[in-house]
Structure formats: C-alpha cells, structure tokens
Amino acid sequence: MISLEQIRYFLEIVRCGSLNKASEQLYISQPSLSKQLQQLEKKLGCELLNRSYDGVEPTPQGKFLYERMSGVLDEFDRVIGQVQHLKKMNQVHIGGLANLVTYFLPQYMDNLRAGGHNQVIVDTCLFNRELVDGVENGKFDIVLLSNAEPQQNIAVIPLMTEPLCAVFPVTHPLYHQKSISFMDIIAHEKLVLYKDPCTIRASIRKQCNRMKITPNIVMELDLTESLLGYVSRGKGITLLPSIVAKGIQNPSIAAREISRIPVYREISVAMRKENVPVYLPMFSKDTTSVNWKKS
C-alpha cells in the first residue's frame, strides 16, 4: 500500500533534484530514502525518476505524480493544521430566535470569537422555552431571547428594549403620515403577523387586550422573509422589531416606529449563572472589558 510518507519523500526528491540533498532535508539516510523510492516505484509499476551523475529528473509519470500530489498534500497539511487549531479552541454554542440570530447577534460575533480563541457555533429555535431548555440540558452556552420570563436555574439578563415598527408598502397611505398610531393600525388595517406562539405576537396581544380591541389578522407566517413578501404584494401590513425593520432591503417596503401607544419587545441573553462573568462581557460594546478565558 502506498503511504503518504513515500509520496512526501518523492516530492522532496523532485524539489531538491537530488537524493542526497533530499535526505538532508528529510533527516533520513540516503539508502533509506532510496529504498522508499524503489518501493513506491514498484507499487506504481513504473519509474518515477531518471538518475544521472548530475542528480535526478522526473519521468513523464513522475512529473504527473508530482504536479497532482503537490497540491493534494498542501491541502492535506492545511486541513490537518486547521483540525489541530480547532482542538485548541473553546467551543461556544449559541442559540437564539431566528430574527435575533440574523439581526442582533452579528454585532457581537467578534467579541464572541475572542480574537480566534473561540469557535462559535450558532443554531436557531422557534421558541424561548426550547432555548431555555437548551441551556439547562447543556446544549447551549448562551441563548438570545425575546420578552423572556425570569428563570429559577439560569440567569436571564436584559440587554435592550426596542419598539415594534409598522411595516407596509411605500404605496400605502401610512407612508405619508408623520405620526403612526397603534390604534389606527389595529382598528383599520389587515395584519400579516408571525404565527403563534410568538413573543412579538404576545406583545401585540397584550396591548390589544388593554385597549379591548381585536386585530384583523388575515395571515400568519413563520418567517420574516415570508411576511415581507406578502406585505410587498399589498396583502396587509406587519409589525416587526426595529432591528428587523431597519434591516429590510426591499425598496418597495417602508418601516415606521409607532409613535402613539408604542409597543416594545425586550431582548435578553441567558446562560448558566456560573458563566455570567465569562459570557456577559462579550455582549458589551466595550471590547476591552471582555474576559477571553473560561473560569
């Protein structure tokens, strides 16, 4: 069976143009190197080098092997190096609601990677409960939650509060209004909203219950992209957190904060209580305060 070691020896001989020089570079004796070369040629069934007093030159078969295997072994060495590097890295498993992973998490990724010391693995879940369970059972080190409830066994730390925005086509009359009222939206507009159970829906529902009014929900969808697709077609308007609304790239859609009776959602990070000193500073904009090592 042909070994990687034999291929490496052959490549070094061609690079050096001499068995003697190659043996010096490889720190093996010339007779041992010659034996390995002979075994390689025997297994391949052809001569790979033409030998002369001036050194060695590859045969056509040798040139073909050299050209093809040089790149293969360079890639092999690169992959091995990456695997060894990953072995030395800490793995940080992060879970979050999809819109938080997409729009909120990126600004903290450099902190979380800790200058290359951490390998960050990110996954999304549909519900806060699933994320909290993931911290409790060890699946996640950190999770990002929306309108989270306090937990007995893990730390839930609020990071920011943001308003919900009305999102509608630029052809909608709301586009020209300086002030948008939550009451006007709920009372007069068709709504395309995230499907329940959903913390954003819970915020909307809570405000509607206070005002004793029932929203006209014409469609419920799982994904932000789906909501925006139907909004752009004039099927209704939607309510989205401001960080999501600000990320909209579709020029046919506008987003405005609700100025009268605003509705908010709270973004929190959750982790095991003993990990708070390690992970919480990573969500600071002041990177000098970040501690890169696990306690």
TrEMBL record:
Key word Transcription present: yes
Pfam families with a match to the protein in the record: HTH_1, LysR_substrate
Family from the record: Belongs to the LysR transcriptional regulatory family.
Domain HTH lysR-type: 2-59
The name this protein goes by in its record: DNA-binding transcriptional LysR family regulator
Organism of origin: Pectinatus haikarae
Keywords in alphabetical order: DNA-binding, Transcription, Transcription regulation
UniProt KW DNA-binding keyword: yes
Top-level taxon in the UniProt lineage: Bacteria
Any one GO molecular-function label of the UniProt entry: DNA binding
